[in-house]
Write a structure and sequence with these properties.
This protein is an all-alpha fold and about 90 residues long. Helices cover about 50% and strands about 0% of the residues.
Length: about 90
């Protein structure tokens, strides 16, 4: 779930962007961006940025990592309103 969904606020394209980035991170690295119990995962989604995918894989194009990290970013960095802004 996106941070917006977990907070119970109106959702928009940012939720889809977050979901795409989250899934892309998992496909690239073979591991989920946040691990632990359900409350720990929720806390991670709400307050942390995932580790860069390049921490777990070699040969990752920098631009792909930038896109994944931008889509999964927290706070003002998540101010993108559509995937054209990434």
């Amino acid at each position: 779930m996106s941070p917006e969904q977990l907070r119970g606020v109106d959702i928009d394209a940012r939720s889809d962007i977050f979901a795409s980035a989250y899934c892309s991170n998992e496909m690239i690295t073979g591991r989920v961006p946040f691990d632990g119990t359900t409350p720990e995962i929720i806390a991670g989604i709400l307050s942390k940025n995932p580790a860069p995918p390049s921490r777990y894989t070699n040969d990752l194009p920098e631009e792909l990592e930038r896109i994944v990290m931008k889509g999964a970013a927290q706070g003002q960095a998540r101010a993108v309103s559509d995937d054209g802004a990434i």
